[in-house]
Design a protein that fits this description.
Blueprint: H1 3-11, H2 15-32, E1 34-36, E2 42-44, H3 49-79
Antiparallel strand pairs: 1-2
């Protein structure tokens, strides 16, 4: 699988499910007000506010981008 085909897949048919997952993750992290670290610990947002907001807003922005690209792919291939 080439980089181009993987990129086309992620921005195309997989865009909408990934967008839904990222939006759910962003909302989950925002409501809990904590970050889950790789080693299993939790980091409160007050301990690292820049990292917390970067993760929440970054996931939401990526979800919006993937949602637009996935819906565009769906429109071009299923309704046009």
């Amino acid at each position: 699988m080439t980089k181009e085909s993987l990129t086309a897949f992620l921005l195309g048919p997989a865009g909408l499910p990934l967008a839904i997952g990222l939006a759910a993750y962003s909302l989950y992290t925002y409501r809990r007000n904590k970050l889950d670290l790789r080693d299993g610990r939790e980091l409160p947002s007050a301990a690292a506010p820049v990292r917390f907001w970067t993760e929440v807003v970054g996931a939401l922005a990526l979800a919006l981008f993937l949602g637009f690209s996935g819906s565009g792919w769906l429109w071009r291939h299923c309704f046009a």
